[in-house]
Specification:
The structure is a single chain. This protein is of the alpha/beta class. Helix content is 29%, strand content 17%. The strands form three sheets. It has a five-stranded parallel beta sheet, covered by helices on one side. The protein has a two-stranded antiparallel ribbon with strand order 5-6. A two-stranded parallel sheet has the order 8-9. The chain is globular, with a radius of gyration of 16 Å. This is Pyrroline-5-carboxylate reductase catalytic N-terminal domain-containing protein.
Amino acid sequence: MHIGIIGGGHVGQALALALRRAGHHPTLLLRDLARGGGDAVAPLAPLPGAEAYILATPHEAAEEALAAVEPGTVPVLDATNPLAMGPDGLDLAFGFDDSGAERIARALPGLRLAKVFNTTGADVMADAARFTPRPVMFAAGDDGYARTIAIQLATDIGFEAVDAGPLRAARLLEAHAMLWIDLAMRRGLGRDFAFALRRAGTP
């Protein structure tokens, strides 16, 4: 697939590397946007022939970054998390009764949106296949085709991809991402770990 990756930070670069290794054709379209300010970014020019976009900017830059994506066309896969600094450090800006993905969907009606690639770190996404068992990656979305593409791409780059249901489930996925961030940054696990599903009776 020809995939436009919106955002050239750690996540965007990791996904580009992994997708290229899996035989896809990713193109980085924007440098990462500085959280909380920075220079204005030129409007995104649509990628000719794009079959999907991955949003890998800071969450607060999402609407600006997606302004050139025509609603109802190709899927957009939201890899962002709505993070903010709180009294105890980095935390979710909001959650449990709303999600960053749902806010994007409300701001850009008709966007074929799915939530995916947000629940683990860039180092894991760059080479998920090196983990045994395979790390889990969840995908949620109200658009069935966008969710299918999210699951397929996550599988292609080495994850055990799990359908998490409608976009409302992004509230749970963003909280799951915060757990990974907390364990990595505050609890000493570092960035080289991932969650996996283990079923009874499997080795």
